[in-house]
Amino acid sequence: MDIRQMKYFLAIAKEGQVTRAAKVLNMEQPPLSRQLKLMEEELGVKLFDRTSKRLNLTDAGELLRQRAEHLLAQFDETLREIKEMEEGVKGVLSLGSVVSCISLLPPRIQLFRDAYPEVTFKIAEGDHVYLGELLQKRAIELILARLPFEGLSKEHYEVLPLPSDPYVAVIPSSWVSKIGKTSVKMKELAPFPFLTLKTDKTIRMHEQVMNECKRHGFEPKIICECSSVAIIMSLIASGIGATIFPKSVMSSFPVSVVKMLHIEDADFQSDVGILWLKDHYLSKSARRFIDSYKTEGYI
Fold it and tell me: Which pTM value belongs to this model?
């Protein structure tokens, strides 16, 4: 089985039909069916269950799919590495960021673009699990995330820790008169309706905030759990509730509608890092992006 046949097989596996796969591959259906037959004859196994309208992978087919995806990714990385040997730093840098770290990217990207104007960016946003899947599929090369990263086992990635991000209280601007100052103690937040950033699969930040509240002798009155920073900020701006967020999140939102307060008696931080897959080729632009944090400091 060669690289071309692997691509044929993966297209059929993805589409579930030879006809649809042929269209994706821009070829006729009969030649593709013949290639599938040749692959099964060569391997001596059935790769698909043909008892339904959709072609479903057999156990052997699923194993081949996993191995073929890995081999093709290695093949593509090898070609890219060879091409980059004589090229400068250019092309598309694909990276992902958790929603609470997006505000950290603009200044870094601006500095990087000043140094490497031929590099363009493709950015994905999501939770740890979603970004971990994209990283494993090589759809992205780097992830900017809160630590510890919950999308992959530690042995699968390398991480460059960045300076920690202090937590602050965030309240509606209309509540400022109730507080009457620019800082609060944790227990002063206890009476407020509380909004928290949480998904079904990523709960580290939520747990960190809840534990700090408990350490100060109260459980917050949670009225909303949400996976979107923007939605939580919108709810706060509407006067619905308050939250505790990493300070960097606030740089993306106007202070006229929400108020950020220093927490006087809590010294807990949100750890941040940029991570990538172990034992995989990184493009020149990805390596330079990582190096920019090491040489210029964190922004």
Answer: 0.68
